[in-house]
Predict the 3D structure of the following.
Amino acid sequence: MTRAVIFDMDGVLTDSEPVINAAAIAGLREYGIDPKPDDFAPFVGTGEDRYIGGVAAQYGLRYVPAMKRRVYEIYLEILPDMIRAFPGVHELLRALQAHGVRLAVASSADRVKVEANLRAIAVDLDGFGAVVVGEDVEHKKPAPDIFLAAARKLSVPPGECCVVEDAVNGVRAAKAAGMRCVAVEQSFAAALLEPAGPDVIRRTLAEVTLDDLGVEES
């Protein structure tokens, strides 16, 4: 039986990729280069240092922390007008809370981004027993570290946790952690997600049921 559900953020609760992409382009232009949106694709989900630094390196720039600070300044300015919760987010969170299920968010993004995103989509941070971010773990997905850290903070064994993910590396991380995993096709098609071994695949988060998550309905 599932006692805790751990949500990835980007691609599951909301899609902030267009926001960070626009902010990174604007920020790096201030350093004299003109990156294109597709330049960032190989670095999605790897954390913002790699996301920004990887593209900077492609254009011959040495990455410095000031780049990320500037990108985040722009990100926070444009976020409210660009971000929305995926359909079904608030309904699913309320249903899980009503059934006494513990909740966590585990995202490779930096804390400032995770907390800003959740506030922008009107998701109450106090509803989560744990919020684990990229700075909290040494090894990022597909390593299981971030999900295991969330389980520890919730005081729930990994075998009683279910992860909701949208990315192949996220599914791999969940299974490596010994957790149930529900994948949603909000970023990747089922054909790409299936080899990673999710227990259930649904087209959208709005289609995910308590039964999919392993939660007993009373």
Observations:
- Residues 67 and 159 are 40 Å apart (CA to CA).
- The mean pLDDT is 95.
- The domain at 4-15+84-207 is CATH 3.40.50.1000 (Rossmann fold).
